[in-house]
Backbone:
């Protein structure tokens, strides 16, 4: 374990941009709108806000506090708290490794779709085009039967960009990239949302999204969904925020930054809900069907429904498509950079490698696995399996174990509270320890139980 002088963020805004860049990702654009729609619409905002305030922001503060205090990547920081806790850090590193491998693939598809939006390559069959012509997905999983260069090339480009930014370091690479990415993302996305709002049927979509179903608030599953969205969306439980905060200067407003990052991420999420459902409302209206029949999320939303919408638009379809897919690419890249950084800095801290070496070796392995696995005819099957496993167990388990170990076994919450209070603008009171020590662990346990039950049903 070699201690080198640690890099630092150039400015407070630079750190914030990077933290927001990590949080704002595909989850905001293609996950939140449908989760909200499916879990009570307008009424979902209540559990969602409760989750943000009782778990999201408190956990962000905890991760910032750990990173800032120990100035090291997740495994080393935890080791400094208590030797065996290092294992939790490596579990998080493993999660980041896996996510990075497939997140890159989705960004590469989105990049291709920027171009396809102009050519409308999918014709009148976006579904057949995506799975058949473009991904050339095999009918059944199992075995590796071939490689698709049209998918591999943009994926290689994504990795070159990500590794180049990481190789430039925290200040010259990560910070500078995010200072360009985030404002650009906001501008492109805002234009897309405004365009969506002008479409016929937009209000139908917004009604479908926001009409509250208050009975949802009595449904435990809705609360689980709200906490799940907050965790995934704020990139909590992966060691990302520990890593990013390890590059903060001594003087840093931890609580203030957590509030800004948390609310910025949720604002973007709401904005995405508005844009996506305005567009879905248009799609439903054009097809003479109900929003219910077209509402969807994830791959189906981005690569099937949006292409449909783009082709159906009376004018400006290509512009709309370029704005949407460019937003996905930028939001995705800034998140991908943060998860690869977790792995890079963990290995750097452990082995004492220089930045360039670490990026080439660690990032190189991630990129290689990504490029070898995902452009095959079976790539999407692996992606589904990885994604399911990570979402259902990986993140929740890591967060739960972290809280039990640091909160109950080692009883370190008072120490982190004190540390945060020594530097932050907003002082943490007893409520912080209660949310992290009691409320959040119970909810996380409930989430684990809930997904296990669904698995066995
Ligand atoms: N927080 C990102 C989003 O909401 O899309 C997703 C994400 C980024 C998840 C980084 C996990 C991760 F490690
Ligand atoms: Na997010």
Residues:
């Amino acid at each position: 374990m070699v201690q080198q002088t640690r890099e630092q963020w150039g400015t407070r805004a630079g750190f914030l941009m990077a933290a927001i860049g990590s949080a704002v990702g595909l989850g905001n654009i293609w996950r939140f709108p449908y989760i909200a729609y499916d879990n009570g619409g307008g009424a979902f905002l209540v559990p969602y806000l409760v989750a943000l305030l009782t778990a999201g922001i408190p956990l962000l503060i905890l991760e910032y506090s750990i990173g800032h205090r120990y100035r090291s990547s997740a495994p080393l920081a935890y080791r400094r708290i208590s030797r065996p806790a290092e294992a939790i850090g490596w579990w998080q590193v493993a999660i980041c490794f896996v996510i990075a491998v497939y997140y890159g693939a989705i960004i590469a598809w989105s990049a291709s779709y920027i171009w396809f939006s102009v050519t409308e390559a999918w014709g009148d069959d976006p579904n057949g085009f995506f799975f058949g012509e473009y991904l050339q997905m095999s009918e059944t999983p199992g075995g590796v039967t071939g490689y698709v260069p049209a998918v591999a090339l943009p994926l290689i480009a994504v990795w070159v960009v990500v590794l180049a930014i990481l190789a430039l370091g925290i200040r010259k690479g990560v910070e500078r990239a995010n200072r360009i990415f985030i404002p650009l993302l906001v501008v492109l996305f805002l234009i897309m949302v405004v365009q969506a709002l002008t479409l016929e049927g937009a209000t139908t979509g917004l009604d479908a999204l926001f009409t509250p179903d208050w009975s949802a608030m009595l449904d435990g599953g809705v609360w689980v969904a709200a906490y799940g969205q907050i965790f995934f969306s704020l990139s909590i439980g992966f060691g990302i925020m520990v890593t990013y905060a390890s590059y903060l200067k001594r003087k840093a407003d931890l609580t203030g930054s957590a509030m800004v990052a948390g609310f910025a991420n949720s604002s973007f999420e709401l904005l995405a809900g508005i844009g996506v459902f305005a567009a879905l409302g248009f799609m439903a209206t054009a097809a003479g069907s109900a929003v219910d029949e077209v509402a969807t999320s994830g791959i189906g939303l981005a690569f099937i429904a949006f292409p449909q919408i783009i082709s159906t638009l009376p004018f400006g379809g290509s512009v709309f498509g370029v704005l949407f897919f460019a937003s996905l690419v930028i939001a995705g890249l800034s998140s991908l950079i943060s998860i690869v950084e977790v792995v890079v800095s963990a290995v750097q801290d452990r082995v004492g490698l220089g930045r360039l070496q670490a990026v080439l070796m660690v990032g190189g392995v991630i990129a290689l696995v990504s490029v070898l696995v995902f452009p095959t005819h079976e790539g999407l099957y692996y992606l589904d399996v990885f994604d399911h496993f990570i979402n259902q167990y990986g993140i929740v388990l890591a967060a739960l174990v972290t809280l039990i170990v640091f909160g109950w076994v080692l009883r370190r919450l008072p120490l982190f509270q004190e540390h945060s209070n020594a530097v932050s603008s907003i002082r943490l009171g007893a409520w912080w320890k209660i949310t992290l020590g009691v409320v959040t662990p119970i909810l996380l346990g409930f989430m684990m139980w809930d997904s296990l039950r669904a698995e066995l049903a």
